[in-house]
Design goal:
Elements (H helix, E strand, L loop, with lengths): L5 E5 L6 H12 L2 H8 L3 E5 L5 H7 L6 E4 L16 H7 L3 E4 L2 H7 L3 H14 L2 E6 L3 H5 L3 H16 L8 E4 L13 H19 L5 E4 L4 H8 L6 E4 L6 H12 L2
Parallel strand pairs: 1-2, 1-8, 2-3, 3-4, 4-5, 5-6, 6-7, 7-8
The structure holds 2-phosphoglycolic acid (PGA).
The site of 2-phosphoglycolic acid has 13 residues, from strand 8.
Length: about 250
């Protein structure tokens, strides 16, 4: 691999503890994963909270790391239904996704709140995978870059610039998530380059940037080949081990 990629499987609200361990093991046993990590790539699986313990346990001897799909910004307290970053560390997680557009859409997450979540994640020692992305209307109005810049600036100002020492951006255009409409490779490259510039010039850091949104084996190679793409956040296509492994194999050729 010419560049080290991070490929994250986001299982969303799929795969309970009864199936999660076996699915994780199937992925871990593949020679593609072993080759990928030997070449400095990183595979991360993000199952639902309840499946974290079994996945962590099954992947104990594997190079695959485990992440959660969200965390609260407080470390403990009266927050019914929530899970803190330190609890995820206790469970064996290394990563956590924050700011996913489905959380923004369904739970009212804002950029400021995403920043607080990212800060809590870093404080607990997790690597936050911070999701940003524009809507279809914003893209059609030519506002995609402005929206992304504003998201980055607000998140960084709430989280503190230090989170960028160990964080990852996931660029996920809203209209591409779960729709089968993958963004065009040239557009992905343009936005990733803009994200990188913003982070370097305004915040002094250069961090990995993943693409997410209907990432499938058919398009993975072309997307990973873009100079400013450092991997992928894969939803639907990570649910079937053989399909997810094809995406990892595509990464091997980059
Ligand atoms: P998708 O989801 O690959 O199913 O579009 C990506 C994500 O939401 O992280």
């Amino acid at each position: 691999m010419k560049k080290s990629l991070v490929i994250v499987g986001n299982w969303k609200m799929n795969v309970g503890p009864g199936q999660a361990g076996e699915r994780a093991l199937t992925i871990a046993a593949s020679s593609a994963v072993q080759e990928f990590t030997a070449a400095a790539g990183q595979v991360v699986l993000c199952p639902p909270y309840v499946s974290l313990p079994v996945v962590v346990q099954r992947l104990h001897h594997s190079s695959i790391r485990v992440g959660a799909q969200n965390c609260h910004w407080q470390s403990e307290g009266a927050y019914t239904g929530e899970v803190s970053a330190s609890m995820l560390v206790e469970c064996g997680c290394t990563y956590v996704i924050v700011g996913h557009s489905e959380q923004r859409r369904d739970q009212g997450d804002t950029d400021a709140r995403v920043g607080l979540r990212a800060r809590a994640a870093r404080g607990a020692g997790l690597i936050p995978i911070v999701c940003i992305g524009e809507s279809a209307e914003e893209r059609q109005s030519g506002l995609a870059e402005d929206v992304i810049h504003a998201q980055i600036d607000t998140i960084v100002s709430e989280a503190g610039v230090d989170i960028l020492r160990h964080a990852i951006w996931a660029y996920e255009p809203l209209w591409a998530i779960g729709t089968g409409l993958t963004a065009h490779a040239d557009d992905i490259q343009d936005i990733h380059a803009a994200i990188r510039r913003r982070c370097r010039e305004h915040h002094g850091f250069d961090i990995p940037i993943l693409y997410g949104g209907s990432l499938t084996p058919d398009v993975a190679h072309t997307i990973f080949a873009q100079p400013d793409v450092n991997g992928g956040l894969v939803g639907g296509a990570s649910l079937v081990p053989s399909t997810f492994l094809q995406i990892i194999k595509a990464g091997l050729h980059e």
